[in-house]
Amino acid sequence: MKTSAPVYRPILKKAFATAWFHRELWPLAAIAGILGTGTAVNDILAQLRNTVLSGAGNSAASTDVYTFFHGYFTYFVSITLQSALGSFLIFFGLLLLGTVLLIGAQHAILRTVHRAAGKKQKISARALLNEMSHLRFRRLLVLNAFFKLLTVNILVATGFLLANLSADKIVSDAIFGLIFGLFSLGIILALNIVGVFSLIAVTKDNASTTDALDEAIQTFSSHPLVTLEMSVMLFALNFLFTLVFIALLLMGAAPALALVTSAIDSGSLVAVSAVSIAIILAFLTLTIAFGGFVTTFTYSAWTELSYKMGGAKKVHPRLHVHAKRMLAHLSRSA
């Protein structure tokens, strides 16, 4: 029996190499990752990180850092937000600036990822700015808003339905809730996959919104199992990366706590401030590096998969390959 060539291993290997080599993309990719990367279950990872970090925040070091900067932030807010009009203008300005920054970062990363994949040279800041200057803002904004709104509506409807299940029929409602929850998760996963392929079509091929949606739907409908398998593998790998990130934070917690304790014992406000700022900067650096690497890796993997599925050879899902092998083995045994 002819063995099939590996599909995902070369894609993931190349995506990892691209993400690791082009570390200059990490800060911008960390911003782009806020909009999502096409793997819906990555929200579970974010919740896990928040839970772990909030638990670590009960330490004396985190408490001192929080207290030190909370006063400055509260003072700033009390001065700038003196009126309802000022609050609205500041909120609207920050919202507009944040939207432009997020969409621009997403566009630049998607554009540079497929260019960087075949190049062993760093991407300059000038090249990134050049990509930002050719921003397809309206199309990317419409696509992001469209898929985010659909996802939120499905989550709200699912949560409302599960919250109002009858307590008198525990077994039947539990089965129904499980089936409906899995169905909703599958729909959300499919929406995220179609969404990321539509974004790739806009940034790579300069497609219109409708053409990008049509191309993304055709890609997903022609390779549903392949894209779902890729999404599951990316989730597993991102979960592993998250565990490594948490381990690094826990390893650095003890030295950070020792430094803060020494600074407090010295009785010097300057020492406490310096140590607190250093810890915050170290934490932000690690967080940006982690978020940037994961986003670059994930976008690279989806881009490579889109190239693979657009090629001449048909891409077979691993479930299909394993099923054929099992049937062939059973037929020989019979």
Could you describe the 3D structure shown?
This protein is mainly alpha-helical. It has a domain at 10-134 and 223-318. The protein has twelve helices and no strands. Helix 2 crosses helix 11 (269-309), helix 5 (84-116) crosses helix 6 and helix 5 (84-116) crosses helix 11 (269-309). It starts with 7 loop residues before the first helix and ends with a helix. Mean pLDDT is 75; it is low at 43-66.
First-to-last CA distance:
17 Å
Helix and strand composition category: mainly alpha
* Average pLDDT number: 75
Poorly predicted regions are 43-66
The rough form would be described as globular
Output the helix-strand order.
HHHHHHHHHHHH
Strand element count? 0
| Largest pleated sheet | none
The share of residues in helices is: over 70%
Overall radius of gyration = 24 Å
Q: What fraction strand?
A: under 5%
Number of helices: 12
Write the layout of secondary structure elements.
Layout: H1 8-21, H2 26-32, H3 42-56, H4 60-80, H5 84-116, H6 125-133, H7 137-163, H8 170-205, H9 209-222, H10 224-266, H11 269-309, H12 318-333
Helix pairs in contact: 1-11, 2-5, 2-11, 3-10, 4-10, 4-11, 5-6, 5-8, 5-11, 7-8, 8-9, 10-11
What key phrases describe this protein's structure?
334 residues; mainly alpha; globular
Briefly summarize what is shown.
This protein is mostly helical and 334 residues long.
